[in-house]
Amino acid sequence: MRITRRECLATVASGALSASEALGAGKRARRSETGSKPGQITLVQINDSHGYFEQHREWFPGSHGKPMFRPAGGYSRIATLVKQITEETMGRVLFLDNGDTFYGTYPVARSRGQALIPILQQLGFQAMTAHWEFAYGPARLKELASQLPYPLLAINVYDNETGRLAYEPYTVANVAGLKIGVIGIASNLVDKTMPASFSEGLRFTLGREELPRFINEVRAKHVDLLVVLSHLGFPQDMKLLSEVPGVDVLLSGHTHDRLYQPVQQGGALVIQSGSHGSFLGRLDLEIQDGKITDYKHELIEVAATIAPDPATEALVKQAIGPYAVELKREVGELAVGLDRATGLEATMDNFLLAAIRDAAGTELAFINGWRWGAPIPAGKVTMNDLYNIIPMAVPISTVVLTGAELKQLMEDNLEATFSANAFKQQGGYVKRCLGLTAYIRVQNPTGTRLTRLLIGDKQVQPDKLYSSAFLTVQAVPAKYNRNRRDLPVYPVDAMQAYLKKHRPAKAEILGTVVVV
Ligand SMILES: [Zn+2]
What we know:
Number of domains: 2
CATH class of the largest domain: Alpha Beta
Mean pLDDT: 93
Strand content: 25-35%
Distance between the termini: 36 Å
Structural class: alpha/beta
Number of helices: 15
Bound molecules: zinc ion
Radius of gyration: 23 Å
Number of strands: 27
CATH superfamily of the largest domain: Metallo-dependent phosphatases
């Protein structure tokens, strides 16, 4: 479905736009009708594609909370769309990548990003920014970025040694006579909530302080359009635009929002376009005198009905070829489909939690509320499915927590997920837990959201000790260090063992986290 400016104005009543914003857009449109023919440019966004080379299942909402999984994505179909849009617009198009591109599946993780390079080299993108790209360490990301025919942009990543920006802050593209400034903002979380190796020698800021300066610098180059390519997340981007004027379009990423129509904030149009390469966001703009006078938007599903581009298909086959035999290996059976699309708990995570708790022999288990991970249908399970659940080779760890620490761990996570200050939202979904029941009030202030924490049907005791399995510092930060150790067991091994024991394996929503 394509949303035009007029249709968007019709949604004022539903509260998607304020009346004054709608009036502003109307005024701009009238001016274009009396002026000279405006310039046209199409922006196409991909965000959070997470290394999904091939078509895969994607989660779509169904009635009564029952999801539908249908095939979507894959670079060969993305390439077809890129070619179609380029032809349709006669090259008046900019393809931009919001990052979280180089992490999420086995071939991309195993090759430390390399497997994707030949595909990205010919796809026609013009700039990107980054987040999980740092998973292989900053030095490796420099190597990857240097192989791309377009820049990685970030106004908020500093080299600790020199104090200078580690990447170019912006680029100015000339497209059919129009000058388009693109400013990049990488994720600010890399040195805050992620393993230390991701950010060695680097410092990450929010970009809030830097953005006005770079807007001035780019505007001084007389651009026709100023675009921000951000990986802060949709709530964070909306807050940023409420504080910083001068942006025409903000392409948002990180939070996997599927925006079926643009949102207006602080004079800017904002879009975000799902995840896993299952969608592209298309924004057709008419521009006059450095102002957007009209637009159309479409959240394009990379559907199975799109014909794959043969050249890209060949590159995909080449990229995943070395891993194909291992990835196709069947390792068990699922009685139910698994997904990771729901905020409080998810079937995919309940399966992973059960497997790591079994392997560690603990009372509880925790993992971070990661958003990446395409759904897996019921039936035969392959190694590819297991690696999509967790592509990283991190050991299962154990720790002993007091009841008081458990409460603190949960309160900190609820603040990082639901903070009223969007800039303090640093989580993904709510922390994934097994073995406890948490009753929460989302709307409460910091530190008071957990109203009851039960293990079995007993309340957690502040001084009692509880053993727990977990994966990475994202699940249990390093400050919790009582009997903290890494086991010589990896989650993929634990899931295989679990599937052997339970055939077919089940994973249900357990009511672990309840909003009251
Ligand atoms: Zn991200």
